[in-house]
Design goal:
Layout: E1 2-3, E2 9-10, H1 17-31, E3 36-37, H2 40-43, E4 61-62, H3 67-80, E5 84-87, E6 106-109, E7 116-120, E8 125-129, H4 134-143, E9 146-147, H5 160-165, H6 173-176, H7 179-182, E10 183-189, E11 195-198, H8 212-215, E12 224-231, E13 233-234, E14 238-246, H9 252-262, E15 267-274, H10 275-284, E16 298-306, H11 313-326, E17 332-335, H12 339-350, H13 352-357, E18 362-363, E19 366-368, H14 374-388, E20 393-397, E21 404-410, H15 417-421, H16 424-436, H17 453-459, H18 462-475
Parallel strand pairs: 4-6, 5-6
Antiparallel strand pairs: 1-2, 3-4, 7-8, 8-12, 9-13, 10-11, 10-12, 14-16, 14-17, 15-16, 18-21, 19-21, 20-21
Helix pairs in contact: 1-3, 14-16
Bound molecules: flavin-adenine dinucleotide, D-malate and zinc ion.
């Protein structure tokens, strides 16, 4: 075993090709013919990620069909010290689900474990396998006249195990919390192949450490989540959606505070969209047009919802909009007249990531600051990056009701994409220093993966990093679970 300068074990994968071949054959026997592939064509989609920043390698993608199969595979890998990269829908944005380029890890996809195990409407819970697609969980909840509120742009492809392992946020955190807040219990295959059955549907359970929270947000570095008991909520009967236009970013959070109060805290979403975001989405995405005739610098997509049919939300929203226009905080606005119109407004918001992709290089930041500091963060960070790269186009958008800003930087028009992207680390440092000065977070909802390893090491205290490393070493002493992600040293020594 080798130790790095911080005393962490690094992975020694001393297996030769013949030994690895034997382990892979044993895995094939466990999962059967439908449970694995070594075909380069089938493997390829598992090696890249949505931003195209990383391209890994693996000898095999394993697709177990049950918790027992996952446990048996992990037990074999533990004995052989063969690294495993768990994968859900492969929509993660920090490269955590992509194997390293050395080709020494297998990818373990949960995609075949996609069943709803049970719905308990009275307990307001649903028990699902980890590979179920998020939209299918939402649908199963709806069929039981309940709501599963986790919602994000990738909901048609991401899987619940991935959502939990990244502690996904999304557009409804403000009302219902992160993935972490939505899980009552989980089932996990530990790095030695043992199964921890923590599938309890309890709202109260103070029997020692809350173990599930180690795996939630653990990005597959501590174990493989195989199933979860999730919280459900009453299904909304009345939903109102509005797009508000603002002249000044300084007014956004004041409008937010007033909307919380005026709606009796029935706000479900409060999403910031800059003018450039409206332009990018309406220019690049099919059949989208500007919902408000005049142009304004800032917009907020706001949603309120109630489980009552006669909640009076529309009247409330109309008088709220009128009052804010009179106060000069909101300068224009549109309230969706139908579910179809609301969906059109959401298409603009949800299309932000895709539309930026058509505008050349984009340097991403997923940061959080206290809600009261959102505007001054955006102003200071926008000025700072413009000083470094004249013509740079900040696209500050997202879940500002949670203090979470996607501070993405599109390249100057006509700039060379590669040259722009080469300044990624420099831009990160500028932006993250401004975040740190506000006691904020350098990763609000996307995680650390491999993209933010150095940033985490830079901004976390030694005490925090030591604690994380001790947890990793205690649960996964041989470092086989998604090695080199979050805090573990990368095979190339980084982190
Ligand atoms: P993957 O990408 O497959 O994996 C992510 C991580 O989880 C990896 O570390 C992987 O090893 C681990 N993992 C996966 N399954 C398991 C398991 N069963 N057990 C243990 N570890 C596992 N994220 C947000 O938080 N909010 C957003 O609003 C949001 N919007 C997005 C919009 C778009 C268009 C896209 C492409 C992505 C967006 N994301 C967002 C990021 C992404 O969708 C989330 O991180 C999502 O939760 C990842 O789920 P997944 O199933 O795709 O996981
Ligand atoms: C979103 O909220 O749309 C994503 O998390 C943002 C992103 O792609 O950066
Ligand atoms: Zn987001």
């Amino acid at each position: 075993m080798v130790y790095d300068s911080d005393g962490m074990k690094t992975i020694v994968n001393a297996m030769n090709e013949a030994e690895r071949g034997t382990v892979l054959d044993k895995i094939k026997a466990i999962v059967g013919p439908k449970g694995w592939t070594t075909d380069p064509h089938d493997i390829e989609p598992h090696l890249t990620e949505p931003r195209g920043l990383y391209h890994g390698a693996t000898p095999m993608v394993v697709r177990p069909a049950s918790t027992e199969e996952v446990a048996a595979v992990v037990k074999l890998c533990a004995a052989a010290r063969l690294p495993i990269v768990p994968q859900g829908g492969n929509t993660g944005l920090v490269g955590a689900q992509v194997p390293w380029e050395d080709g020494k890890s297998i990818v373990l996809s949960l995609a075949r474990m996609n069943r709803v195990r049970a719905v308990d409407p009275l307990n307001y819970t649903i028990t699902v396998e980890a590979g179920i697609i998020l939209a299918d969980v939402q649908k199963a909840a709806e069929d039981a006249d309940r709501l599963f509120p986790l919602s994000l742009g990738a909901e048609g492809s991401c899987r619940i195990g991935g959502n939990l392992s990244t502690n996904a946020g999304g557009v409804a955190v403000l009302r219902y919390g992160n993935a972490r807040d939505l899980a009552l219990g989980i089932e996990v295959v530990l790095p030695d192949g043992q199964v921890w059955d923590g599938l309890r549907g309890l709202r109260k359970d103070n029997t020692g450490y809350d173990l599930k929270q180690l795996f939630i947000g653990g990005e597959g570095t501590l174990g493989i989540i195989t199933a979860a008991v999730l919280k459900l909520f009453p299904r909304p009967r009345e939903i109102e959606t509005a797009l508000l236009a603002l002249a000044r970013v300084e007014d956004v959070m004041e409008v937010f505070a007033r909307a919380r109060a005026a709606s009796g805290d029935q706000l479900t979403a409060f999403e910031l969209i800059p003018r450039i975001g409206i332009e990018m989405t309406t220019n690049h995405l099919h059949a989208l047009s500007d919902p408000i005739a005049a142009k304004y610098p800032w917009y907020v997509l706001l949603e309120v919802s109630s489980s009552q049919t006669e909640g009076g939300l529309r009247t409330m929203l109309e008088s709220f909009l009128a009052a804010q226009m009179e106060a000069g905080l909101v300068v224009d606005g549109v309230i969706a007249a139908s579910a179809g119109q609301a969906a059109e407004l959401w298409r603009i918001r949800d299309g932000m990531t895709e539309a930026q992709g058509y505008e050349g290089g984009s340097i991403k930041h997923d940061v959080a600051v206290p809600v009261s500091r959102v505007a001054d963060f955006i102003i200071e960070a926008s000025e700072a990056v413009a000083r470094a790269i004249p013509g740079i186009r900040p696209v500050a958008f997202g879940h500002v009701g949670d203090g979470n800003i996607h501070f993405n930087l599109s390249q100057p028009i006509g700039a060379d994409k590669a040259e722009f992207l080469a300044r990624w680390v420099e831009m990160n440092r500028i932006v993250h220093d401004i975040v740190a000065a506000r006691n904020g977070s350098i990763s609000a909802e996307h995680g650390i993966g491999r993209m933010k390893l150095e940033e985490l090491t830079h901004y976390k205290t030694k005490v925090e990093l030591d604690l994380m490393r001790k947890i990793k070493a205690a649960l996964d002493p041989d470092g086989i679970m998604n090695p080199g992600k979050i805090v573990a040293p990368a095979p190339d020594g980084r982190g």
